[in-house]
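Intended use. Records like the one below are meant for learning the mapping from a protein sequence to its folded structure. Do not use them to infer anything beyond what is encoded.
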Amino acid sequence: MKTIHRPLLILLSAIVILTACSTQQQATGSPTAVTDAVTSRNYTFVATSVFPTEDSRFNPRLLLPNASNLYQLTSRYDVRVTSDSVIAYLPFFGRSYTAPMDPTKGGIKFTSTKFDYKKTQRKSNYEIEITPQDNTEVRSLYLTVSPSGFASLRVLSVNKTPISFNGNVEAN
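Structure written out for the chain above:
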């Protein structure tokens, strides 16, 4: 019985280690490619996990000591930034204060061609604030990008609670 468990355990450990290594290689990009993409405003933020913001008064699960609000995304959700447009296709989990008339209009989906774009650099990270002028739902997007391409995005909406995403930045 012991001889069967040991090879199975070694095989499973090898699979986990190889999967972690391949995910790490896919996620990181060269610092110059990320810097060039962010500087030229030609990149895509690809969300891999989401942190919905909920009020603990309405969600008793948040009062548990080790409750986690991190949810892994299984589909592709992204924000594409170019010099003349911002296209967002993101999910939304949380409290919405107004319901859309069309049920297919859920989530955070918009295309903006008139927006303010402010980029600052703190230490080695880029902090980007995007404020759409031609969208009445989303107030602003705050994106923090590391030199390796890891990024976090915080979306502030007019009629929804704030929501945060973690992911990667890819050059278009």
